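Anyone? Bumping this.
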Amino acid sequence: MNVGILYSRIRKDEKLLLAELRERGHEVTKIDVRKVQFGLTEPPEIFDDVDIVLDRCLATSRSKYATQYVAAYGIPVINSPETAEVCADKAKNSLALAQAGVPTPATDVAFTKESAMESIEKFGYPCVLKPVVGSWGRLMAKLDSRDAAEAILEHKATLGHYEHKVFYIQEFVDKPGRDIRVLATDGEPVAAMVRSSDHWLTNAAKGATTEAFELDDEALELVKKASDAVGGGLLGIDLMETGDGYTVHEVNHTVEFKALTDATDVDVPAKVVDWLESKVKVEVPA
Amino acid sequence: MAECVECGADVALHDDLEIGEIVDCTTCGAELEVVDVNPPVLEKAPELEEDWGE
């Protein structure tokens, strides 16, 4: 097969995928989205021979729009624009999880400093204020007091992009110093790890230590439900342990997996390529 | 080996270099993007943006 890779930066994750695809004899068309013009009807020439497109755009905005255009050209794209749309936005993500009956932290969205403050006071301290778009744990605020809350709301309202004026307020989940990252293909776990840190943020990008994690039946069911809730695909599903179960706080649609590869014995790129091969068989019948 | 566009120092490169990959200059610390591999050509990498990553 010929796999088109949408990218603007080749990380270790993409290098692992490229190596796996080439080792198996697949063709790879690297598509730098910075150099492409997406017209309304005809796909750009670079898409001519691709059987399937894998979106590995680092920028959420590019990922959201490029996948819409690729799908409109009738080219199978992983992940689908529908999945990207939901996962790229924390507010939509939370709503999709809640609507699917997946346990997720209590979350409010508010549009003014005053109404956001009411939510914060309702949740009590600490609680969490997150940007609706963004990642790697950036611009996340744990609010320990009213003074801190007022200052951060003021900063966001004054300095932020318009999306920072959408206040996403979440209960603070007192997790046991770690959270769980599961990489799944259409709800089927490929590998899972715990990310541990003394810091309240346990992102691998923030320096958390990682180790393999064995999913129990409840976690397996939640991974499937969370994946279905956002439309399926190649996803990173984040869970936290609450003491009497799990809560799913986020599903990521252009998932990074280098930390997972290091933490587990699973050959993640091989499993991902297995799955891509199966998708092409399904979506592009010979 | 290629030249850092920031400080002019030699930058050692891996054999499996990919266009689009980011390498660091060990002399000045600049992030550099590989824009060609044969021969290797480096440019200053784009700045980190707010909506990057996952």
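Late reply, but here is one note on the structure posted above: The two ends of chain B are 31 Å apart (CA to CA).
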